[in-house]
DNA sequence: GCATTACATTTCGTGGCGCAATTAAGGCCG
DNA sequence: CGGCCTTAATTGCGCCACGAAATGTAATGC
């Protein structure tokens, strides 16, 4: 039945977009798909029949919500029918997650990276994949990596892994026999949010990630906004506070100085006279320790000003804050609002801000989303 | 033949997109349209035939460029077949231009605005329209206005005209009998550049306007990026230089303080001890007057930093600088590049920067573009 | 002059689509 | 409780937009 090479068999574009709509919008009625795709009800009967026949879609109960009239039959994808693996490569570890068709995570594997030689990393990666895929068929692998990637396959540069000009997708495909796609981790995360996550109903939204660095992702007119420089981290040193602390690269009050986990931990540590890590620093601020509170207020205001810049320039309908450092936005929420107010016209409407989990899971789901997209859209590389 | 109500008669979408392609891409061969629209050559023969029949398109000679093979027949719109009027409303004048189907200007009318009462302005406007349209049929009127506009028709607020909640399109339609569309002037200008201008080949570009205020327009994924707040001038007080001069609203070194014609003229005037206007200020800087040069260098650097912010956040393939104050960008070009370098990663690629004319014409063409779009896309309001 | 190249057109069959009518499945109400 | 209404899904039907293939057309090149 489910052939591995293509998803919907027929390459008919509207059949494909129906399948994608069900995949992205969860259980959904035929009539609702018809409205979204500007198709007629008969078309939807025609288009869904073969997809149900193939076992790709299933009817999952009815829904009526107390309205009169015939209840709708909800359609859904067989989320378990396919498996994917999403992998996040970090400076010193590798996290791989087995997911279903929606990027929901089934299980995990982690490997410490002590040696960054590509062949060693690829071997570890293949090992984690083998472990996760025991007894299963994995349709595709997605990899997210902090750095510059071309063609969803080729790593141009990844500073913290000290990689340059590496055909990563090809290496992994060879090592695992599974088609593989690679992209910048923030692109992967943004794509996940666009297809399945908090941004799936928006025309425009922005993603801001906090953690070791500060990242930015943008979706406008329902499509990702990227260019060849994406992955350089263009907003990593965005100026936020002319009187703020210095960052290691010598920018005063830049995003790195105010928002990165390292700098926050270092500044709080220096202020209270002992070493603390990022989470302790936030704990102290939350507990009311004055120096920590002050430092985190400054960071929050800086973040607010960054968000104001995002709003003023890209007019998003939603802002999604993610990354390991997301707690900053929550702990310093009041200061964020202050900073936002500072650079926003008082008549302007601020978009809702939503927070992602802030753990490794979201990066893996993002990476898996790349693999899912490639499979569904038929852009997977061949394994030959 | 040319019915006034619709453009392409048949509402067939691909017939319409063929017509739009010819309108936007100037003289173009069938085969090239086929490539752009993902259609086959036979489809193009079929689709163009009735459009030529109607007199909407014409064949304008052949082209071969020294290649072998049958030369291409170039198709073009009968640019003179329709007329439009584009109107820019300013604080104290109204500029109306008669244009052809491509927004190219045929003639002008100007009216001084001494009274801002809507009925008076509408009467003046109708008078200018009557003058321009003598002996001609005008298909639609487009109006560009600095302010907040809804539904391409309804002025929510326009500060400098002291207008609020005014159904301007309706009033003008009633006064002239010609269907009218209204929008923010910068949206109009951006739409012109997107359809006909320097951005017509780009997926993404940004527009920055200089003059009385600082404006910003963005196109991503070939569509305008706007929201309900567009027209508030969200980047008018963008922070650019923490040590810069104050603006009247009390922001230090903001876009207004550094880039607006008024502030530049005032600052140069104060420095040299006599009143100068904007153009004199730029003349002085160009002539090497030290104080003027310094002030304009600071402005140029500020502009550069603004452009850096635009590039970092929206990754445009092109930046178009327009507005009455565009000369600043040219006079202070070196400083602009300095400022740009300041906030850009040295590995990033800067997009080409192009300059618009900087006179009233570009605003009128923008307004006309709104009218052309509405006519071509069939979204014109009825005159009933 | 004939081969080559490439744009344009004609013919023809396929198939995707919507309209209209029909069937299905539940509420609403006297 | 049994029509009636409403909304969803399906079936039948015919239209017509589209591309494949073949043909026509107009240039270059040797």
Structural account:
The structure is a homodimer of 384-residue chains. The relative contact order of chain A is 0.12. The radius of gyration of chain A is 22 Å and the shape is globular. The first copy, chain A, folds into three domains: 13-80, Arc Repressor Mutant, subunit A (Orthogonal Bundle); 82-191 and 361-377, 2-Layer Sandwich (Nucleotidyltransferase, domain 5); 199-355, 2-Layer Sandwich (Nucleotidyltransferase, domain 5). Chain A is of the alpha/beta class. In chain A, the strands form four sheets. Chain A has a five-stranded mixed β-sheet with strand order 6-5-4-7-11. In chain A, strands 14-13-12-15-16 form a five-stranded mixed β-sheet, sandwiched between helices. In chain A, helix 2 packs across helix 3. In chain A, strand 9 (154-158) and strand 10 (163-166) form a beta hairpin. Chain A has helices at 13-25, 30-37, 41-53, 118-132, 168-176, 185-195, 255-259, 261-272, 278-287, 290-314, 327-331, 333-342, 360-377; strands at 28-29, 57-63, 72-77, 83-89, 93-99, 105-112, 138-145, 148-150, 154-158, 163-166, 180-184, 205-209, 215-220, 223-224, 319-322, 353-355. In chain A, 40% of the residues lie in helices and 21% in strands. The mean pLDDT of chain A is 93. Chain A starts with 12 loop residues before the first helix and ends in a 7-residue tail after the last helix. The first copy, chain A, is built from 13 helices and 16 strands. The A-B interface holds A 204, 216, 218, 220-223, 225-230, 232-235, 237-239, 242-243, 309-315, 317, 343-345, 347-349 and B 204, 216, 218, 220-223, 225-230, 232-235, 237-239, 242-243, 309-315, 317, 343-345, 347-349. Chain A binds a DNA duplex (30 and 30 nucleotides) through residues 12, 14, 29-31, 39-47, 49, 62, 64, 66-73.
